[in-house]
């Protein structure tokens, strides 16, 4: 991911993050994927009414799907409103999907969505990461580093 892509993500009006993922996993590799949505789903996402908590991706028949993503029903949607939690297809090229499929066959690896945003063309995109689970002592180490950073910021602001 280059600096231009990072700038576009920061400028995005909608940024739905999976904060728990960075605590639970080590990120090995990241990809940006498009997502197949219905009309009322994209409208809800543009309003920021989505959640990536407890989501994961799986590969089925050469396609990558995200499971557990929650998109609230659109408030102005009528009888054809979408289902809140359903499996949604992600758009990656075959080479990337094949690479992810090979890596997830190894024990301890999984694919987790980390960020959902709207790109400059108004389309919803999802950043997914190939992850390896953290052990308990790794999580304690992460908490300690976060606490130390917070303490240093507090001391610097004080002076």
Can you walk me through this structure?
The protein is an alpha+beta fold. 36% of the residues lie in helices and 33% in strands. The chain contains five helices and nine strands; from the N terminus they run αβαβαβββββαββα. It has helices at 3-11, 19-24, 39-46, 94-104, 136-158; strands spanning 15-17, 25-35, 50-51, 56-60, 63-67, 70-71, 88-91, 109-118, 124-133. A seven-stranded antiparallel beta sheet has the order 1-8-9-2-7-5-4. It has a two-stranded antiparallel sheet with strand order 3-6. A hairpin with a 2-residue loop joins β4 (56-60) and β5 (63-67). The longest helix has 23 residues, at 136-158. It is globular, with a radius of gyration of 18 Å. It starts with a helix and ends with a helix. The mean pLDDT is 88.
Topology of this protein?
Blueprint: H1 3-11, E1 15-17, H2 19-24, E2 25-35, H3 39-46, E3 50-51, E4 56-60, E5 63-67, E6 70-71, E7 88-91, H4 94-104, E8 109-118, E9 124-133, H5 136-158
Antiparallel strand pairs: 1-8, 2-7, 2-9, 3-6, 4-5, 5-7, 8-9
Structural class: alpha+beta
- What distance separates the N and C termini? 36 Å
> Order of strands across the widest beta sheet?
1-8-9-2-7-5-4
The ordered H/E elements are HEHEHEEEEEHEEH
Major sheet description: 7 strands, antiparallel
What's the Cα radius of gyration? Answer: 18 Å
What is the global morphology? globular
Could you estimate the helical fraction of the residues in percent? Answer: 25-40%
User: Which ranges are low-confidence, i.e. pLDDT below 50, for 5 or more consecutive residues?
Assistant: none
Residue share in β-strands: 25-35%
Quick check: average pLDDT? Answer: 88
The tally of beta strands, per DSSP, is 9
Number of helices: 5
């Amino acid at each position: 991911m280059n600096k231009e892509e990072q700038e576009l993500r920061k400028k995005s009006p909608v940024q739905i993050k999976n904060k728990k993922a960075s605590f639970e996993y080590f990120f090995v590799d990241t990809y940006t994927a498009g997502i197949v949505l219905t009309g009322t789903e994209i409208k809800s996402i543009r309003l920021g009414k989505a959640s990536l908590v407890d989501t994961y991706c799986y590969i089925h028949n050469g396609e990558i799907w995200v499971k557990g993503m929650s998109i609230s029903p659109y408030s102005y949607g009528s009888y054809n409103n979408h289902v809140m939690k359903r499996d949604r297809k992600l758009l990656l090229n075959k080479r990337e999907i094949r690479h992810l499929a090979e890596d997830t066959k190894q024990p301890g690896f999984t694919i987790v969505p980390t960020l959902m945003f709207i790109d400059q063309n108004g389309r919803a995109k999802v950043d997914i990461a190939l992850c390896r689970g953290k052990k308990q002592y790794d999580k304690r180490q992460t908490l300690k580093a976060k606490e130390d950073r917070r303490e240093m910021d507090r001391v610097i602001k004080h002076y």
